[in-house]
Automatic annotation (TrEMBL):
Top-level division of the source organism's lineage: Bacteria
Coiled coil: none
SUBUNIT field: Part of the 50S ribosomal subunit.
Record GO biological process: negative regulation of translation; translation
Higher taxonomy: Bacteria, Pseudomonadati, Campylobacterota, Epsilonproteobacteria, Campylobacterales
Name listed for the protein in its UniProt record: Large ribosomal subunit protein uL13
Gene name as annotated: rplM
Length: 142
């Protein structure tokens, strides 16, 4: 019986993956993104090593939500001062800063360790169709 091999951080091969968010459900899209960032789709996945790929999300503002979440779902943060609770609606956060919204949601799906800080750095979110990472993206057919 052969033992399972654990991969070393220097042996990890990272790809750049572009995900188009237009017309997709927010939660379903982010579970796929969290899987790609974590590296669970690779055959040599090791839980204590950052095996994930770089993920670029384009058209972040064109994602779909079910029901009335855009008006009713709230995000809270605290400034650290007395009475310093700040609340923002999902719709406002999506319009003003979609990258922050995506990071908050994906961060909750990653492990609660220092490894997650390295994984979340590989997530790039852009509201429009353009992104500056064209040199890194693999072109199909070449």
């Amino acid at each position: 019986m052969k033992a399972t091999q654990a991969i070393k951080p220097s042996e990890v091969k990272r790809d750049w993956i572009v995900v188009d968010a237009a017309g997709k459900r927010f939660g379903k899209l982010l579970t796929e993104v969290a899987t790609l960032l974590r590296g669970k789709h690779k055959p040599y996945f090791t839980p204590n090593v950052d095996c994930g790929d770089f993920v670029i999300i384009i058209n972040a503002e064109k994602v779909e939500f079910s029901g009335t979440k855009l008006d009713t779902k709230l995000y809270h943060r605290h400034t650290g001062y007395f009475g310093g609770v700040k609340t923002e609606k999902l719709g406002d956060l999506l319009n003003n800063n979609p990258a922050k919204l995506y990071r908050l949601a994906v961060r909750g799906m990653l492990p609660k360790t220092n490894l997650a800080k390295e994984m979340i750095k590989k997530l790039k979110v852009y509201a429009g169709n353009e992104h500056p990472h064209t040199a890194q993206v693999k072109v199909e057919g070449k």
